Amino acid sequence: MNQQALPLFEIFIRSKRGLDHRHVGSLHAEDCEQALEYARDVYLRRSEGVSIWVVCSSDITASQESDVASFYDPMDDKPYRHATHYKLPKEVDNM
Amino acid sequence: MNPPSTTALLDTPLLNYCIALGDDSLTLGHRLSEWCRNGPFLEEDLALTNVSLDFIGRARLFYSYAAKLEGKGRDEDDIAYLRDCREYRNFLINELPNGDFAVTMARQLIVDVYDMGFFSALTQSQDPTLAAIAAKAIKESRYHLRRSEEWIKRLGDGTEESHERAQNAFDQLWGYVPEMFEMSDVELQLVEAGMAVDRSALKANWESTMQLILKQATLDVPNENWAIGGGRDGIHTEHLGYLLAEMQFLQRTYPGQQW
Q1: Among A75, A85, B197, B223, which is 20 to 30 Å from B121 by CA?
Q2: Cα–Cα distance measured from residue B130 to residue B142, given in angstroms and rounded to the nearest whole number
Q3: Beta bridge partner(s), residue A55
Q4: Mutation test of the interface with chain A: which of B36, B43, B100, choosing the one with the most A Cβ atoms within 10 A?
Q5: ipTM
């Protein structure tokens, strides 16, 4: 079988109930069902999780390096968007 | 002299029963391990090796229990590594070479469907150890079957070549199936004692499940006009000797070697 022909899937594992699914890696498979099974064999051999998500890598839209200037840089000079920017009245003990 | 108790009478048959079940698992586990680093692609390579380890683990449980029943100081390694072909009692299908990927998966489907029926029944055994091993095995087999069933459907309903290879695989394996459902008198004795599984009673279910899966895979159920058996009597194909030669080499050459 030509591995190049097999689509790539991103694997997300929930390690415990109540926690979020976390990205653990990717693998090749024929379809989602098979990707789920391979994820079990590749990433869950030592009981690392209780739930698996697989997502076809091509379905992910990712930001690009070229987006940095317009996406992230403008936030650097807006400290008031952070809670720590504000002085709290004494009456508020914890935020 | 008191007549021997039923338990004493059954000791040796039960011991042999455990060894035969261990042999089924070990020979197939070894065959699957031969795929390690030879798998069609990395993910499948890992998956096959996982399944292999499940079977080898199963063999250890059966052999350890057999060694305990025997009580002569042998351990699981002695049983696995220090017996020759004629003392092995596995079904022939487990010792056959892997062939191409279709043969490996066709055999796996045949065995997985069988194991689902067999171990479900064995969980009802009066022998608590056998029932416990079966309870563990059934969970593994459920996953094995999920894999082999999907693969056979992919291959059968895939390309012209994969369909042909899958059909050839079942055609060449089909004659090894009948012995899986043939009972010996000794084994029937164990069934009456509530310890063993009546394998002949599993056949109808096995056949209907296989028919269903093969139909979905667009494959034909082979015409069963030949049958080879003898595994449970220690009569094997020539392939087992080579398998054991490789598997037992280290213990035979360096007796007692540990790692």
Answers
A1: B223
A2: 18
A3: A10
A4: B43
A5: 0.78
Question: Could you state, in order of their start, the residue ranges of all structural domains in chain B?
Answer: 10-253
Architecture of domain A1-60: Roll (3.10)
Please write the tens of the pLDDT for every residue from B49-76: 999 999 999 999 999 999 999 999 999 9
Cα dihedral A39, A45, A48, A50 sign: positive
Rounded to two decimals, the pTM is 0.88
Report chain A residues whose CB lies below 8 A from the CB of B150: 33-34, 37
- Residue ranges of alpha helices (H) inside chain B are 6-33, 42-70, 76-81, 92-95, 101-122, 128-156, 160-173, 185-192, 203-216, 239-253
Longest CA pairwise span in chain A (Å): 68
Among the partner residues A29, A33, A45, nearest to B43 by beta-carbon distance: A29
Class of domain B10-253: mainly alpha
Q: Where are the domains of chain A?
A: 1-60
Task: Tokens for B56, please give them.
Answer: 């080898």
CA distance linking residue B19 with residue B80, whole number of Å = 9
Percentage of chain B beyond pLDDT 90 is 93
